[in-house]
Specification:
This is Amine oxidase. Belongs to the copper/topaquinone oxidase family. It is an enzyme of class 1 (oxidoreductase). Its EC number is 1.4.3.-. This protein has about 850 residues and is mainly beta. The chain is about 10% helix and about 35% strand. The strands form five sheets. It has a 24-stranded mixed sheet that branches. Strands 4, 5, 6, 7 and 8 form a five-stranded antiparallel sheet that branches. The longest helix is centred in the first third of the chain and has 17 residues. The chain binds 2-acetamido-2-deoxy-beta-D-glucopyranose (5 copies) and copper (II) ion (CU). The site of one 2-acetamido-2-deoxy-beta-D-glucopyranose has 8 residues, from strand 21.
Length: about 850
C-alpha cells in the first residue's frame, strides 16, 4: 500500500535495501510504479487476516529516545523533587546519599535529565535467539539461488517461478541452546528457515539454510516434496494481481449494474477488490477464492473493508497455470449463484432479481466515514488544548539492551520472534534463575458468521499471512504506542513480492510508571508502600484491517503480564435493509446494523501462545489447585481417609477446601465454572517452607470457542482450550501449521495432534495458552475499534520464600520518625527532547 511504502521511518532507511549482497542499492523513492502497484494491490487484498510480508529478523537496537540537543522546559515548574507537599517524603540517606543541589534549579531553568543509551551493544547476532538480519536473509537467498533451489531473486512475475515466501530464524534445538547457555557448550550456529513456493513442482518446501555465520553452508529440506500442496499455500501478491486482472472483464460486463446500484461507481476508479477472504482451500488439493468489491474509502491509502458492497463471486484458481483459472459463482445482494457475469447482468436487466440502489452522494462520504481523523466540526473539550501528562526518566533508563538481550531489575531475557509467528521471548530469568525458556505468540484465529455470500464463513489463521509485518511493515508510533523515552528495536522481514529484506522499527522497550501501588499498608503509626514500576516489551503489528499489540510486562515481584490488544477497524458486511427475511431492521441473526449500509459480522479473535516454563530446570509438572466446597468431613478426608468425624470447631457443616491434582497425561483444558488455579511446579525444587516452587498461569477475561463440530476445530484446535499441556518436542514447535487452515479437511500439525496421551509428570512440558475475545461489532467500532484486550498472567506461586520486592527501595514512614525510606532522590530536570518522525 502506498501509505505504508512511505511510512517507514526514514531515519532507519527502512526501504533502503542493502547493496552488499549483490543487489543494487534500491531506495524507497526508486521503487518503480510497478512495485508500488504490486505492494498496493497486495496490501489491499489482505486484511482481516493480515498479510505479513516479511520476516521479523535481526533486531538492531538503536536508541530513539532522548537526545541531548537542547532542552525543553515545562511552563510551570513544580518545587524540587516529586514529593512536594508530602509529609512523609524525607528520603532515607542510606538509599541515596547524594545531596540535592536545589539552588541551581530554583529559578526554573532546569537542565535536561541525564540520559544514557540503554543499548550497550548492537551485536544482535551474538545471542542465540536473535532474529535474522537482512544481511543473513540475503546470504540465505543467494545461496538458494546459487544452488538452483529458487529460480529468481527478483520480484516474481509468474507463478511458475520458485521463489522465497518467508524467512525466519531457525531456532537451535533447546538442548543445544541450553548446553551453550548453561554448560559452556559450543554456541549454536545460526540458520535460516526458508519457505519456498515452487510453481513448477506445485508444492511448498521449507529449508534449513546455514550456518549463516560460516562460509560453508548447506541446505536441508525440512519436508518432503509434495508434502505441502501448492494449493494450501498462503495468498501472495502475484496471485491476487492475476485474479484482479481476470476480474476486470467481468467488471466491464457488470458496469451498468455497478453504476446503478452503487451511486454511479466505476471500476477501478471508485472500487477495489478484496481477494483475501480465507481460506482459499479446505482440502489443500483445490483452490478457490471468494472476492467482494468495496468502495475505496481510504482513497488508496489502505484497504477498505468497511464499505463492502453486495457484489461478490469466486475465482477458481488452483495450481500455477493461470490459463486454467476462471471466474464464476457471481452473487448480487446474496442472489445467485450466476455462473458468469453476463448471466448476472441478464438477470438484473430482466428484473428477475431484487435490486439495491445506494443513496445518491453516498459514495463521496466514504472517506469521511472511514478515515480516522479528528472531527473538525466539533469543539475541543474543556482543557483539551493543553497537553496531557507525560512520563520520563529523571535519572536515565534503568534497563540495558545488549543486542537482543534485555536486563532490568534482576530480570533478563532475549527478544526474538519473526514475521510469521510474531514476537517471542527466550531464556527469561529472574535473579539468575530460569523461569521460562520460551514465551511466544504462535497464532491468531478469526472466524466470521454473517448472512452474506462474501463475508460468511471467513476463517483466518493470521500466522498464515504473517503476524509481524507483512504487506504492511509494522512500525511503532512513538508517542502513541511507545512513549518518547522508549527504546525502539529494529527487526527485519522478507517480502515475497519484491524478494527483498526490509528493516522495520517494530519493538518498543521501556520502563513504565504504573502510578499506583504495587503493594501498600498503613498501620496506626506507620505507612509503607511501593510504587508500581514495570518493564514493558511492546510489539504493535498490523494485519490488514486489524492492529494487534502484544505486550509483555515484567513486574518487580516476579509477575509477567501478557497482553494481546486489538484495535483497527472491522471487516464489515453489507446491510440489506429490504431483505424480506429479517423482520427487525436493526439487526439480523449475526450482528447489528452499525451504519447506513453496514452490519458488523460477529467473529472471534483467539490468540494462541507457547509457554514453555523451565522452573529452575527443564522438568516440570502441571498442577491444578481446585477451589472446592463441601462437608467439613469430606474436606478432611481428602488428606486423611481414616478421619471419621470433623472436630467440633467446624461450626458449619459446609466448608471450603483445596484439592490438588497433578496432571499425569497431556490434556487440553478450559476455564470451568468450578474455580481452579493452574500451576507449573518443579517437584524437585522446594521453597524454604517445603512447598514445590511454581508459577500460576491465570488467563485474564477471555472468550471461549463456541463451535462444537466445525471443520476448523482440528486445524485450529488450540481455540478449544484455554490451556493445553503437552510434552515438549522439537517436532511440535508451534500450535498450528501455517498451511493447515488451507487444508482443514486434512490438517497435518495441530494442537490436538500434540495431545496424544504422553506422560507429563516431571517432564519438559509446554503450556499452550489460548485467550481471546468474542467480537460483536457495535456502533462504537466505527470508524475504529477502540482497544480491546485480553491476555494472561504468569504469577509466582510459592516460587519465592517471601514477597520478592523487599530488596527494592520503597516508601516507609513511621510516626515516631524511627524509620524513613524512600525511592532514590533525583535532581528535578526537564524531559529530554526527543525526535521521532515517521514520515519526515
Ligand atoms: C538494516 O539496518 C541495519 C542496521 O542499521 C543495516 O546494517 C542494514 O544494512 C539494514 N538493512 C537494510 C536491508 O536496509
Ligand atoms: C496451461 O494450461 C493450458 C490449458 O489447459 C495448456 O494448454 C497449457 O499447455 C498449460 N501450460 C503449461 C505450462 O502447463
Ligand atoms: C489420619 O488421622 C488419624 C487420626 O488423627 C491419625 O491417627 C493417622 O495417623 C492419620 N493418618 C495419616 C496417614 O497420617
Ligand atoms: C452435612 O452435609 C452432608 C452432605 O450434604 C450431609 O450428608 C450431612 O448430613 C450434613 N451434616 C449435618 C450435620 O448437617
Ligand atoms: C527430565 O526427564 C527426562 C525424561 O524423563 C529425564 O531423562 C531427565 O533426566 C530429567 N531431568 C531432570 C533434571 O530430572
Ligand atoms: Cu474483531
Amino acid at each position: 500500500m502506498h501509505h505504508q511504502n512511505q511510512g517507514m521511518d526514514s531515519r532507519n532507511h527502512a526501504y533502503d535495501v542493502d547493496g552488499g549482497e549483490g543487489k543494487g542499492k534500491l531506495r524507497r523513492s526508486n521503487l518503480s510504479c510497478r512495485e508500488l502497484c504490486w505492494l498496493q494491490m497486495f496490501a489491499v487484498l489482505m486484511f482481516g487476516v493480515g498479510i505479513a510480508g516479511g520476516i521479523l529478523i535481526g533486531i538492531y537496537a538503536y536508541h530513539a529516545g532522548p537526545e541531548s540537543d537542547g532542552s525543553t522546559q515545562c511552563p510551570t515548574l513544580p518545587p524540587q523533587g516529586s514529593q512536594c507537599g508530602n509529609a512523609h517524603s524525607t528520603p532515607s540517606p542510606n538509599v541515596n546519599p547524594k545531596e540535592q543541589d536545589n539552588n541551581e534549579h530554583a529559578s526554573g531553568t532546569l537542565g535536561e535529565c541525564p540520559t544514557t543509551n540503554p543499548v550497550t551493544g548492537t551485536r544482535y547476532e551474538s545471542t542465540v535467539f536473535a532474529p535474522l538480519t537482512t544481511a543473513e536473509m540475503y546470504k540465505a537467498a543467494k545461496f538458494l539461488k546459487d544452488n538452483g533451489v529458487v529460480s529468481t531473486l527478483n520480484a516474481p512475475t509468474s507463478l511458475f517461478e520458485n521463489f522465497i515466501l518467508y524467512q525466519w530464524l531457525d531456532v537451535p534445538t533447546k538442548t543445544a541452546a541450553l548446553d551453550f547457555l548453561d554448560n559452556g557448550g559450543p554456541k549454536p550456529q545460526r540458520h535460516a528457515k526458508v519457505t519456498v513456493q515452487r510453481g513448477q513442482e506445485l508444492d511448498i518446501m521449507e529449508y534449513r539454510v546455514g550456518p549463516l555465520d560460516s562460509n560453508v553452508m548447506t541446505i536441508n529440506s525440512l519436508n518432503k516434496p509434495g508434502d505441502v500442496q501448492f494449493n494450501s499455500r498462503p495468498y501472495d501478491g502475484l496471485e491476487v494481481g492475476i485474479m484482479t486482472q481476470m476480474l476486470e472483464k467481468d467488471m466491464t460486463t457488470l458496469a451498468p449494474l455497478i453504476a446503478e446500484s452503487f451511486d454511479g461507481a466505476k471500476y477501478p476508479e471508485d472500487l477495489v477488490f478484496n481477494l483475501f477472504n480465507g481460506p482459499p482451500s479446505t482440502s489443500g488439493v483445490d483452490r478457490d477464492t471468494r472476492w467482494v468489491i468495496t468502495y475505496n474509502g481510504f482513497k488508496g491509502a489502505d484497504v477498505d473493508l468497511i464499505h463492502i458492497l453486495p457484489l461478490s463471486g469466486r475465482v477458481h484458481n488452483p495450481g500455477s497455470n493461470v490459463s486454467q483459472w476462471y471466474t464464476y459463482d457471481f452473487h448480487y445482494l446474496n442472489q445467485g449463484p450466476y455462473r458468469t457475469a453476463s448471466d448476472l447482468m441478464n438477470a438484473y436487466n430482466r428484473n428477475e432479481i431484487r435490486k439495491v440502489k445506494l443513496e445518491k452522494g453516498y459514495k463521496d462520504t466514504t472517506y469521511d466515514r472511514i478515515f480516522p481523523k479528528r472531527d473538525s466540526g466539533q469543539p475541543y473539550r474543556e482543557n483539551a488544548d493543553r497537553h496531557g501528562p507525560r512520563v520520563y526518566y529523571p535519572s536515565g533508563p534503568r534497563y540495558t539492551i545488549d543486542g537482543t538481550h534485555v536486563k532490568w531489575m534482576d530480570w533478563s531475557f532475549d527478544i526474538s520472534g519473526g514475521q510469521i509467528r510474531g514476537p517471542a521471548l527466550f531464556d527469561i530469568k529472574f535473579r539468575n534463575e530460569r523461569i521460562l525458556y520460551e514465551l511466544a505468540v504462535n497464532d491468531i484465529s478469526l472466524n466470521y458468521a454473517m448472512d452474506s455470500h462474501s463475508q460468511n464463513n471467513i476463517i483466518y489463521a493470521d500466522a498464515t499471512y504473517g503476524i509481524l509485518g507483512g504487506l504492511t511493515p509494522t512500525t511503532i508510533m512513538k508517542g502513541v504506542d511507545c512513549p518518547e523515552h522508549g527504546t525502539v528495536l529494529q527487526t527485519s522481514f522478507w517480502l515475497a513480492d519484491t524478494q527483498l529484506a526490509y528493516n522495520m522499527s517494530s519493538i518498543c522497550v521501556f520502563e513504565a510508571d504504573g502510578q499506583d501501588a504495587l503493594w501498600r499498608h498503613a498501620g496506626s503509626s506507620f505507612e509503607a508502600g511501593m510504587r508500581n514500576r514495570y518493564l514493558v516489551v511492546r510489539v504493535p503489528t498490523v494485519i490488514g484491517n486489524y492492529d494487534y499489540t502484544f505486550e509483555f510486562d515484567f513486574y518487580l515481584d516476579g509477575k509477567i503480564f501478557n497482553y494481546a490488544k486489538a484495535s483497527g477497524y472491522i471487516q464489515a458486511s453489507f446491510w440489506d435493509e429490504h431483505d424480506p427475511k429479517w423482520p427487525d431492521k436493526s439487526r439480523d441473526a449475526f450482528g447489528y446494523r452499525i451504519s447506513d449500509y453496514m452490519t458488523g459480522p460477529i467473529h472471534d479473535h483467539m490468540f494462541g501462545y507457547k509457554v514453555d516454563f523451565d522452573i529452575i530446570d527443564r522438568n516440570n509438572t502441571f498442577q491444578v489447585v481446585k477451589w472446592k466446597a463441601g462437608p467439613a468431613l469430606e474436606a478432611l478426608q481428602t488428606q486423611n481417609a481414616s478421619i471419621t468425624k470433623a472436630p467440633e470447631y467446624f461450626i458449619y457443616n459446609e466448608t471450603r477446601y483445596i484439592e490438588w491434582e497433578k496432571m499425569a497425561q497431556e490434556k487440553g483444558i478450559r476455564k470451568t465454572p468450578e474455580q481452579q488455579f493452574w500451576l507449573v511446579v518443579n517437584e524437585r525444587e522446594k521453597n524454604k517452607w517445603g512447598v514445590e516452587r511454581g508459577y500460576q498461569i491465570a488467563p485474564l477475561q477471555t472468550g471461549s470457542q463456541a463451535l462444537i463440530n466445525h471443520p476448523l476445530l482440528k486445524a485450529l484446535s488450540f481455540t478449544k482450550y484455554h490451556c493445553a499441556v503437552t510434552k515438549r518436542k522439537e517436532e511440535e514447535p508451534t500450535l498450528t501449521s501455517i498451511y493447515d487452515v488451507n487444508r482443514m479437511d486434512n490438517p497435518q500439525a495441530y494442537l490436538d495432534k500434540h495431545i496424544d496421551g504422553e506422560s507429563i509428570l516431571d517432564e519438559d512440558i509446554v503450556n499452550w495458552v489460548t485467550v481471546g475475545f468474542l467480537h460483536v461489532p457495535i456502533a462504537e467500532d466505527m470508524p475504529m475499534t477502540v482497544r480491546v484486550e485480553t491476555g494472561f498472567l504468569l504469577k509466582p506461586f510459592n516460587f519465592f520464600d517471601r514477597t520478592a520486592t523487599f530488596d527494592m527501595p520503597q516508601y516507609t514512614d513511621t510516626k515516631d520518625g524511627s524509620l524513613k525510606e524512600s525511592e532514590p532522590l533525583f535532581d528535578q530536570c526537564s524531559e529530554p527532547k526527543t525526535h521521532y518522525c515517521r514520515f519526515c
